[in-house]
């Protein structure tokens, strides 16, 4: 093995940077990685040029060092630029596959030039191609990781926003609160729900709380556990908790799971829970008689 | 014993716990309270923990014990004024206090006791 790894690659990159850049962009275009609708010709070129430049610097430092390790500091610059460009592309709606194709397209122009240079030394050629290919693959994977991280951030943000929207505690009547739950109930949300519910009990001096799970898609043991804990906390506060909106299906599922609701009251509909709640605070709903209605 | 005081209010014993209560105070309280229940033959105890900001398993257990002791002496215990954070902690610790009655405030507890006949109905109004 030669002392200076990727020496020829570095030479090629130095000698014909412009040519490689042009070929690269052309190759990317052929591979379908170019998005004319999202990026102008110039932007595309600038991004590719800065990637290529830091790639060359990385190769240079790595070949000086004599060791090839993608975690090295030599490649930090490239990683920075790569994540910057990836970030920009995510925002404009480039697909992760396209981004990877763009990076992988760099192989063709580099390999072509290496083959020309090292015609007489096939062993060396294979060695360099192997390393180079490894490096480029690694950066394609890295850009993919950046992509995923960006997406995860978006999801995280949306979840936070959803969390704020999804715990409305409504006062139905004096001393009667209701909390309509919609969607899924994971631990984080259950905590949030419990906090806002208990806070509301103190603020409104509520005596009865109806937790309506009509909008909860599935009830597994964990969700049931969260519900029962919420009910227990409500009881500790000195209010009563009614869980309503338990569909026949959910009732069966809960029995199958062996969930014991204990003393917590359950009702099939919000309607019957409301009747129950109003009765216990001494209020009744009844129809007004016709004379009164006509008078209005 | 300053951290927890026992008052006789409307035929029930009101125990008010302050935030700086220590473990020994709680044990003293348990003793004093059981004595008072036996002496006065009252049938209701209200434990006001609205000043309590932090609970641990010890406090939770003592609350449950107070209730059990009171029940043996034929008195029902209401825990009132629990803060949301305290309720969440107790649930988190798995202490659901199933023996205790609970109410939002002292007046809620008195109402409930009247309804269940623990307090003399003549005192009302």
TrEMBL record, chain B:
Gene3D superfamilies: STAS domain (3.30.750.24). It holds the Pfam family STAS. Residues 2-113 form the STAS domain. PANTHER family: RSBT ANTAGONIST PROTEIN RSBS, RSBT ANTAGONIST PROTEIN RSBS-RELATED. This is RsbT antagonist protein RsbS. The lineage of its organism: Bacteria, Pseudomonadati, Pseudomonadota, Alphaproteobacteria, Sphingomonadales.
């Amino acid at each position: 093995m030669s002392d200076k790894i990727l020496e020829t690659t570095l030479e090629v990159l130095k000698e014909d940077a412009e040519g490689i850049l042009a070929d690269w962009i052309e190759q990317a275009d052929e591979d379908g990685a170019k998005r004319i609708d999202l990026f102008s010709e110039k932007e595309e070129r600038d991004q590719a040029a800065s990637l290529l430049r830091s790639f060359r610097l990385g190769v240079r430092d790595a070949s000086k060092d004599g060791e090839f390790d993608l975690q090295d500091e030599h490649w930090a610059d490239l990683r920075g630029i790569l994540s910057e460009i990836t970030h920009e592309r995510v925002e404009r709606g480039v697909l992760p596959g396209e981004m990877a194709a763009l990076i992988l397209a760099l192989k063709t122009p580099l390999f072509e030039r290496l083959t020309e240079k090292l015609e007489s030394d096939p062993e060396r050629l294979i060695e360099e191609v192997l390393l180079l290919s490894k490096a480029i693959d690694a950066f394609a994977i890295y850009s993919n990781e950046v992509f995923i991280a960006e997406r995860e951030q978006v999801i995280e943000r949306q979840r936070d926003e959803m969390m704020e929207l999804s715990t409305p505690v409504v006062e139905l009547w004096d001393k009667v609160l209701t909390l309509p739950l919609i969607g899924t109930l994971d631990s984080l949300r259950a905590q949030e729900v419990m906090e806002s519910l208990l806070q509301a009990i103190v603020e409104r001096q509520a005596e009865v709380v109806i937790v309506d799970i009509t909008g909860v898609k599935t009830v597994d043991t964990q969700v049931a556990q969260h519900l029962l804990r919420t009910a227990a906390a409500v009881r500790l506060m000195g209010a009563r908790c009614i869980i309503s909106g338990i569909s026949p299906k959910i009732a069966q599922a809960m029995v199958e799971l062996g969930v014991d609701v204990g003393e917590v009251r359950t009702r099939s509909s919000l309607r019957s829970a409301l009747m129950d709640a109003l009765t216990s605070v001494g209020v009744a709903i009844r129809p007004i008689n016709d004379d009164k209605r006509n008078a209005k | 014993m300053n951290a927890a005081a026992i008052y006789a209010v409307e035929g029930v014993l009101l125990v008010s716990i302050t935030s700086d209560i220590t473990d020994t105070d709680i044990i003293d309280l348990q003793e004093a309270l059981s004595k008072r229940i036996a002496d006065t033959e009252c049938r209701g105890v209200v434990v006001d923990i609205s000043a309590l900001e932090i609970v641990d398993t010890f406090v939770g257990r003592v609350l449950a014990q107070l209730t059990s002791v009171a029940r043996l002496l034929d008195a029902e215990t209401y825990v009132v004024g629990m803060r949301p954070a305290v309720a969440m902690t107790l649930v988190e610790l798995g202490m659901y206090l199933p023996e205790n009655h609970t109410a939002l405030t002292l007046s809620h507890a008195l109402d409930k006791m009247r309804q269940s006949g623990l307090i003399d109905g003549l005192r009302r109004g």
